[in-house]
Amino acid sequence: MKKTAKQTIGWREWVALPELGIPAIKAKVDTGARSSAIHAFKIESFERDGQPKVRFAIHPIQRRKDIILYCEADLIDQRDVTSSSGQKERRYVIRTNLQMGERTWPIEITLTNRDNMNFRMLLGRTAIRNRCLVHPGTSYQTGKTLADVYPKRKK
């Protein structure tokens, strides 16, 4: 089996989560964090055909409350996560495909309110393990074209 070369990424990257209907979200790459997290609010768990699910809303762009996306995913777990501030929080966990540059692969993401954070998504080391090399002095190694998918703010 041929090994695929690892993708070099910077400390922040534009990514997409197509299964969730999120065409673009800026993610902070954090090798100090085990799990990935996404900003979510109006989180509601439910069942459909005996399958646990979760629906939630997100503001994919920091400081843009006018853009709201509504998402739904299979609920795969609930986990206690300790944040960087030392707070423990019980979070819903989903699995979805991450698209970064030309590559797509499944990752697990916890849902939490990141309203006060600079990035709407945190990409932890489990999501990039064996796939990416992080060059911490660079940004947007996979491009910035996704930044233009949302309408510009009206003045």
Summarize the helices and strands and which ones pair or pack.
Blueprint: E1 7-9, E2 12-17, E3 22-30, E4 36-39, E5 41-48, E6 51-58, E7 69-82, E8 88-100, E9 103-112, E10 121-124, H1 125-128, E11 132-134
Parallel strand pairs: 1-11, 3-10, 4-9
Antiparallel strand pairs: 2-3, 4-10, 5-6, 6-7, 7-8, 8-9
Report on the structure:
There is one protein chain. The N and C termini lie far apart (54 Å). The protein is built from one helix and eleven strands; from the N terminus they run ββββββββββαβ. The chain has a single domain, classed as Acid Proteases (Cathepsin D, subunit A, domain 1, Beta Barrel). 3% of the residues lie in helices and 53% in strands. The protein is mostly beta strands. The chain has a nine-stranded mixed beta sheet with strand order 2-3-10-4-9-8-7-6-5. Strands 1-11 form a two-stranded parallel sheet. It has one helix at residues 125-128, and strands spanning 7-9, 12-17, 22-30, 36-39, 41-48, 51-58, 69-82, 88-100, 103-112, 121-124, 132-134.
